[in-house]
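Journal club prep, notes for RB
We'll compare a predicted complex against what the paper describes. Inputs for the CA2 case:
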Amino acid sequence: MRRELLLLHGPNLNLLGTREPDVYGTTTLADINAACEQTASAYGVGLRAVQSNHEGALVDALHDARGWALGVVINAGAYTHTSIALRDAISAVKLPTVEVHLSNVHARESFRHQSMIAPVCVGVVAGFGWRSYILGVEALLGHLGIARDALSTSGQ
Ligand code: CA2
């Protein structure tokens, strides 16, 4: 049985940790990938990370994931706000997808307030820096019924 997630990163996120640390922090993309891999592996789930600066390559990665992934965690970067192609791809592949952002997009410029992809995602995590990704992986695993998806009413 396939037990892997796709972690998909959009444009400029390859620069993480090297530029604009005041906005995006000092953590690198490699650090984030490793932390997400560790989070998923605690549940016996693997993780493949892909980054591209090209919209079509991100669409291709989503199509490819149809063949092997349980679900997707995506930071589509600036394409979040513009890409009908990514929205259509997420809809088409029918894999549960969680949108994540490092920054709180709602506290920034108004053009970042709209997400093209949020309506076809299971949910959105934004504003927690690198932790948004960990929370996104946890949320996706919960949605898939792999991580805890309900609070226990017995015990503490
Ligand atoms: O907060 C996020 O995660 C964003 O998806 C980041 C995008 C931005 O366009 C979205 O509105 C919100 C930008 C990613 C740029 O990443 C950089 C990393 C280091 C240095 C410069 C840019």
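Talking point for the session: The pocket of CA2 is lined by residues 12-13, 15-16, 19-20, 24, 75, 77-78, 80, 101-103, 105, 112 (CB under 6 Å).
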